[in-house]
Structures are given as structure tokens and as C-alpha cells.
Amino acid sequence: MDCHLTPATQGRTLFSMAVSLFSSIRWRLVAAVLATSAPLLAAKNPTVDKSPVNYNIPLWEEGKAPLATGNGPLDNPFLTVFLPPEGKRNGSAVIVAPGGSNIMLMYGVEGLDIAERYNSWGVTAFVLTYRLSPRYGENVRVMEGKRAVQLVRSRAGEFKLDPNRVGYIGFSAGSASQSLSQRSSTR
User: Fold this and answer.
1) What is the mean pLDDT of each run of 10 residues along the chain (187 residues)?
2) Reported pTM
3) The dihedral of CA 54, 60, 61, 65: what is its sign?
């Protein structure tokens, strides 16, 4: 017998073959096991995610960012808060400035991953989302690095931090704004 399969009939044919491999009794047994095991597994392995949800805090009130050329999402810098689990917190904090050649942010590997590593050490991390080129120059990024440190120190009580234990780590373009920020504040 010659059988011609089209894309529309191929799936049904494969399904029919799978169904014929198992009797209806076996299908009922598999369904019953799956239905009863899911709640049992959930009860034995409850989700143990004790870390709070990350959230953003703006560096400035909306529409009041200095030197802004607009009021869109790319014109309003902010910090994303990464709190370590309550029992691990040690009162220190770090501001993480991801790199990205000043034209993008490598938020995953140079932001989120770094913040989570610091959290594992008990450090509260703040990932800085700063304004980018070509709309904004290095002077704006330096200002935002300074503002991020000021903001975290001013809200230290809210996050149970020691304001004298606030660090700054930057990658590539993020480190340039940090080093310029330090140089300009020591003059």
C-alpha cells in the first residue's frame, strides 16, 4: 500500500502510531500517575525563593533628569535593587555599572549576574542603567555615577546599609564613568 504523507496528515499519523503502541489501559495509568505525582512533588519541594523581587528606583524624579534631551525610557536613568536574602545581609552595598561601549548595556553578564554574585556574599547590589551615546556624553554618565552613590548613601537606612560601605564596580564603559567620577570628586 502506497502512503503519501503531507505536512497536514503527518502529525496525525505519528500520533496514531504512538497511540497504537499503548493500550488504553496504559494511557490511563500514565495519566493517573502524572495527575497524582505533580501535587506530591510540589508538596515535597516547595519553592524556597526567599529573595525579594528586584525593583527600580529612579536617579531623579520623572522629567527632572539633568541635561535630558527627552522624557522617554532612555532619558531616565535608574538603579535596579537586588537585595540578598534577609539572613545573609551584611550592611554593605555595591553599585554595578555594566559596560557596552556607551551605546548599549551588557545588563545580563555585567549587571544581573554580578549583582546576584554579590547577593550570594550578603551584599546589596544596585545595577545602574545610565544614559547612552550618541544622545548623551561622558559628562552625563559621570554625573549619574555620582548621583547613584549619593542616592544609595542617602537611603542607606531604608536598605539597612552602612553608608560608609557603598562601593562601585564598573565594566568597560561603566568603569570609565566611575573612574572619572572619582577623579572629579577629589579635585
Assistant:
1) 50 47 51 49 46 88 91 92 95 94 84 95 96 91 93 96 95 64 46
2) 0.69
3) negative
Going by C-alpha positions, the residue among 141, 142, 159 that lies closest to residue 57 is: 159
3-state secondary structure at position 52: coil
User: 184, 106, 115, 119: which is closest to 145 by C-alpha?
Assistant: 184
Check: CB of residue 140 under 8 Å from CB of residue 75. Answer: no
Q: Give Dmax (Cα) for the chain.
A: 90
| CA gap 76, 129 in Å, rounded | 9
Contacts of residue 131, defined as CB under 8 A and 6 or more positions apart, other chains included, come to 65, 68, 74, 75, 77, 140, 141, 144
Give CB contacts under 8 A, 24+ apart, made by 67-75: 67/136, 67/139, 67/140, 67/143, 68/131, 69/135, 69/136, 70/135, 74/131, 74/132, 74/135, 75/131, 75/135
Of 166, 16, 139, 162, nearest to 79 (Cα)?
166
